Amino acid sequence: MARTCIYCGGGPLNREHALPDWLKGNTPHVGDLRDYEVTRGLVGGPTKTLDSNPYELKVRAVCGNCNHGWMSDLEQTTKPWLLPLLHQKDRELPPFALALIAAWVFKTYRMMALANRAPNERDPVPHEHDRVLYEQGVPPSAASVFIGNSILSPYRPLFRPGWHPDVILWRPDEPPFDKASGPSSIQGDIYGATLGIGHFVAEVVGNTFDGGLTLLNIQPASMIADRMIRIWPIAAGIGPGGPVVWPPPPLSDDEVFATAAGLMEWFRALPLSPDHVRERHPPKGLQ
After folding, report:
1. Domain boundaries, the chain
2. How do residues 168-216 score in pLDDT, each as one tens digit?
3. pTM
4. Orientation of helix 95-116 relative to helix 127-136, angle to 10°
């Protein structure tokens, strides 16, 4: 559990809602709100559900200055752009709006992950990654953010986090290469989650290799690659490169659930290390 603010390092900490209050009255849902479930589970493993209202979930990880300052500003600035996505409405999203949404997704992922974290579980996201959001207003470049459109389902809000510790990426064909000792390698963690609210679905996948590599060639699973839009990081030739016309074709529940178990598969597909990803420990999740 955080003892100082994960963003500014200050205090005292406030106990605040993990999902912003404005979502509760502005998000379409199926059935009665009391029937909502929060799903938590291992990557690629069994899941557990909590019969509770996720809008009442609270987290103690940020100070009052951050919560009522820049984080509140982010909510108010992003809200007009998120509302059409929650309701599957037509909207053109310019690049600056996509950057806002990416920052909101990463912030919300962090709050939900910390709210659901087991008491003695290590936080897989380095402090330096949180500082990027605090100081620059954007996610760290080591985290990729994708967004999509989904059918409306009773399984909303949906949150499925994942964490693969101590993953080794081998670099068999890149220098430095020492024939005596074998190929070079880097080791780190993979973290991320699938977040579904209303018709809106987002995927975060980050890494700590060499402190956090900017991996522009990560792609969603092939069955949904044409319907999940990369909005962070953006580089020449990568990402939309201009306004995004919303909504894209919708994802089914099965497809949304499949993205939650696909963190390692994204890294297995990297040209950097085809067929050379090794996990030293089993994937961890919230149990």
Report:
1. 13-279
2. 776 555 544 444 455 567 788 888 888 989 999 999 999 998 888 887 7
3. 0.87
4. 140
Distance CA 196, CA 156 (A): 6
CA distances from 63 to 75, 116, 121 (A): 16, 18, 21
- At position 232, the amino acid (one-letter code) is W
Token couple for 30: 């199926």
